[in-house]
């Protein structure tokens, strides 16, 4: 019986997933690299769909999925496994009624963590934001990806010093190159073992399709919202470029409030300014916030 199975996800199509030509082409290339035996690394700024695309590719592979989120506090044992809790064995011998004999045996209990489970059973590993983990914690991946072997700690027991990685094991990584808080530079040896696919903001068709699918607004309204967001992004005057998440936030809120995607609708204007000013400026940056709101007003007048 596998207690580790509780950490495994069932691969299935994502709800409301939008598959345009751009998405299909990216997915097909990723699956080709995986079929050739190489891990895939989706690298891009926040909002470019790295994790969603990784889950989509994993669903196409069809194997159970194990997911890990990078963390500064991770050590190798958080990936491989460790001794957690105790197992107590007690034997009571009362064969002779006048003599009571008891034996107790208490040992630490080893539990495999997610990387070991994925390697052992040939599951698909999604390591989301892997550069948030310290490089020394990720060193275990070097032999896993190259030699298809995992070094096992002596405490694990079982008489073997290594685990042969199942042929069906697949690894998909994601990272954000522009994050600065809690992010480490990945070691060259690890990056050299994977194929990195750089993701940028989606094309117009894909952003409109995603906004329409996630919000339920008519396509013409979704397109107006996307044009406003893209216009702000392409202006190059924001501290942070707005992403498709901004489109979704605006569209879903308009849908909830039964608003109108129209320059004359005050609620719509306020929603756009709230969402886009917060998404594109740092906290406390009043001057930039005012500038963004002015640009948003102009873009709404132009496209809506």
UniProtKB/TrEMBL annotation:
Q: Which GO terms describe its molecular function?
A: ATP binding; ATP hydrolysis activity
Query: Which InterPro entries would you find in this protein's record?
Result: AAA+_ATPase (IPR003593), ATPase_dyneun-rel_AAA (IPR011704), CbbQ/NirQ/NorQ/GpvN (IPR050764), Gas-vesicle_GvpN (IPR013462), P-loop_NTPase (IPR027417)
* One BP annotation, GO: gas vesicle organization
What GO CC annotations are associated with the protein? cytoplasm; gas vesicle
Keywords from UniProt, A to Z, are: ATP-binding, Cytoplasm, Gas vesicle, Hydrolase, Nucleotide-binding
Span-the-membrane segments of this chain are none
Question: AAA+ ATPase domain: which residues?
Answer: 36-205
Q: Where is this chain's protein located in or outside the cell?
A: Cytoplasm; Gas vesicle
Which reaction equation describes what this protein catalyses? ATP + H2O = ADP + phosphate + H(+)
Query: Family per UniProt?
Result: Belongs to the CbbQ/NirQ/NorQ/GpvN family.
The UniProt entry, under NCBIfam families, shows: gas_vesic_GvpN (TIGR02640)
Protein name stated in the entry? AAA+ ATPase domain-containing protein
Record the organism.
Candidatus Hakubella thermalkaliphila
């Amino acid at each position: 019986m596998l207690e580790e199975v509780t950490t495994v996800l069932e691969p299935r199509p994502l709800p409301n997933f939008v598959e345009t030509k751009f998405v299909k082409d990216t997915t097909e290339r990723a699956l080709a690299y995986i079929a050739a035996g190489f891990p895939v690394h989706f690298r891009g700024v926040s909002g470019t769909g790295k994790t969603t695309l990784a889950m989509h590719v994993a669903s196409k592979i069809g194997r159970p999925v194990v997911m890990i989120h990078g963390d500064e506090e991770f050590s190798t044992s958080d990936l491989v496994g460790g001794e957690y809790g105790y197992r107590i064995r007690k034997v009571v011998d009362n064969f002779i009624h006048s003599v009571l004999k008891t034996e107790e045996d208490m040992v630490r209990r080893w539990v495999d963590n997610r990387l070991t489970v994925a390697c052992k059973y040939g599951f698909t590993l999604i390591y989301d934001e892997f550069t948030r983990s310290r490089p020394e914690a990720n060193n275990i991946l070097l032999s896993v990806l190259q030699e298809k072997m995992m070094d096992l700690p002596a405490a694990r027991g079982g008489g073997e010093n290594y685990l042969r990685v199942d042929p069906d094991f697949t690894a998909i990584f994601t990272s954000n190159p522009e994050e600065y808080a809690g992010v480490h530079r990945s070691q060259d040896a690890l990056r050299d073992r994977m194929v990195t696919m750089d993701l940028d903001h989606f094309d117009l068709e894909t952003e409109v399709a995603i906004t329409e699918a996630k919000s339920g607004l008519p396509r013409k309204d979704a397109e107006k919202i996307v044009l406003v967001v893209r216009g702000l992004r392409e202006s190059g005057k924001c501290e942070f470029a707005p992403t498709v998440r901004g489109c979704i936030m605006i569209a879903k809120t308009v849908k909830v409030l039964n608003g109108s995607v129209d320059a004359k609708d005050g609620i719509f204007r306020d929603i756009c300014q709230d969402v886009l000013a917060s998404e594109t400026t740092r906290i406390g940056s009043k001057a930039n916030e005012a500038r963004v709101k002015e640009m948003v007003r102009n873009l709404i007048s132009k496209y809506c």
